[in-house]
Amino acid sequence: MTMKRILISVLVLLMAGWSSAYGEDGSCLWLRLDTVNTTAMITGVKGTAMTELQTYWQGDPVVLKRQKGLAKDGYTIKSLNGKIVITAANDAGLLYGAYHLLRLQETGEPCDMLDIKEEPFYDLRILNHWDNPNGTVERGFAGKSIFLNPTPERMRMYGRANASVGINGTVLNNVNAKPEALSTESLQKAKEIADQLRPYGIRVYLSINFASPIKVGGLTTADPLNDEVVGWWKEKVNEIYKLIPDFGGFLVKANSEGEPGPQDFGRTHADGANMLADVLRPHKGIVMWRAFVYAPQSPDRANQAYLEFMPLDGQFADNVIIQIKNGPVDFQPREPYSPLFTAMQKTPMMVEFQITQEYLGAANHLVYLAPMWKEFFSFVKPASLRAMAGVANIGDDTNWCGHHFAQANWYAFGRLAWNPELTSKEIAEEWLKLTFSTLDTLNSQLLSVMLDSREACVSYMMPLGIHHIFAGSHHYGPEPWYNPRGVRADWTPPYYHRADSVGLGFDRTMQGSGNVRQYPDELCRLYNDINTCPENLLAWFHHVPWDHRMKSGRTFWDELCHKYDDGVHEARHFLAVWDAMQPYVDSQRFDEVQHKLRIQARDAEWWRDACLLYFQTFSHRPIPQDMEHPVHNLNEMMQFRIPITMYENPEYGYNK
Ligand code: GCW
Fold first, then answer.
1. CB 82 within 8 A of CB 59
2. What is the atom index within ligand 1 of the atom nearest the CA of 130?
3. Which of 141, 148, 273, 437 satisfies CB 3.0 to 4.6 Å to 649 for a cystine?
4. Cα–Cα distance measured from residue 25 to residue 401, given in angstroms and rounded to the nearest whole number
5. Confidence of residue 109 (pLDDT cuts 50, 70, 90)
6. Which of helix, strand or coil describes residue 586?
7. What number is the average pLDDT over the span 283-298?
8. pLDDT (tens digit per residue) in 538-565
9. Of 228, 257, 421, 500, which is the active-site residue?
10. Helix crossing, 443-461 with 556-579: angle to 10°?
11. Active-site residue among 358, 375, 396, 603?
């Protein structure tokens, strides 16, 4: 080899090392750490803490110390005579302490004179993957399941990412659980994943199909009070714990959207949940039983969970947690909180947030979700809950989440599950610094984009309390008119928006569906009166007359038009802010985010035009002069459908 060639090879190697170290394709998430030492991986959770520090920590020597008396998973970090001492009651605490230290280093915080004490707010901080055995992910917008062919490299990064924000549990499969999730072959696979995640302090859980005793076990019934059925579950659970000794437990979607459940056998949710809880108890396993239930014949879907679960309050075993979606309908851009949270007094509850953006622009829109989750916590006290679950937005895309900024939602979920008192701003700042370290000087503008993005999305999709007017099935884009023959009413937008010549919105007042009664008195009164109901929930609780006078002085119709238009302008502004970031962001991530923001700006316009032109056919009122007027044609938009399944992210939105 000539000298020149040798030099070129060295240069190429250096550059390859540089680009992978900086992870400019997004694969390193927020962990874009410089390797200072290559060390062999030491086993065990404490070993992971040591490996991480030896590989990436650049400051004073660190001592890891176990000490009784601290909270589980909590830690202290103290500077002491030229050393840093991380103390924790368990190994996971040491690992979380190590990541805290690395975070300080990476965000440029001072690392001398440390005196930190942290403990997690919730014991259980868990992701729910909606991954299917064939590798598709329900509402997954970032490719296929990472668990389909779990490579050690990918699992390691997944473990690190989760542990770095304190996530300590993961449900591997879809709540629409295929019975084969419990086959011996699948359990073997779950074991392999559990083995790979254990060093990161992450326990594995599974979603189960309630009819498994019939479908996997060949029994004639799955009645939870039947001895043979109980015996089958006992054996299955023993088999699981033999393979995965620290298995966490089951997540169950029962009697919901066609999934089997105890009601099929004349039993209650409590009968079903308690049977499984009894079987899991000797192994210290838990049951997370979902309250996401609604019935086609119900006059108001928002009422259903309360109606089914309130009579059972106090009847659940102590290792059952009822897992409730944040809102009473379904992960909409804005919903009031689910009234079950303040009604149930004698039952452990946990909240289920959706990190994947099923109803918030999938992996095409930049929507930072922490403000939405904080809004929930402004109504439901964090201390009234036992745990926090998040439906994961993770897939096998190189950048994990489809959109570089969607990584922020995974990050924020973990940080809030650790400490729900953190502000959206604190978390976004941290994430931005870690993820785009070169952006320092301009972060404030991007920070505002993140913080404003959820409200902007509400504005251009469904402002003022409008909800569930998405396209059928895949839920991408507007289809307020979607109402095909034979489809259940509560799966069509007109059920929710109820537009007519009088106005728009679902009457959930005392005169309407009575849903307001499920809230505490004060809120019930507030929501029941159209003049006191917060305007951002107006069409959620009221059928609002088109000429209803809003606080701005505008009519409801005019306000609606303006909100949609404001949303469009915000989406365009996000793009403009990003465009100005070009000199400071590596080219791949810059281009990829720009591509997405352009889609978002066009989609916002599509939403505004489709919704306003469609609702105008009921309101018969003009679009106000002082705003931009629709540029699309209603008929064309009504013909347009994106040909994707519920397992995909569309490449584009409206492209006519
Ligand atoms: O949000 C709806 C989704 C379904 C999902 C269901 C649920 C897993 O459209 O895809 O199914 O909720 O949460 O069970």
1. no
2. 8
3. 141
4. 12
5. very high
6. coil
7. 95
8. 999 999 999 999 999 999 999 999 999 9
9. 257
10. 150
11. 358
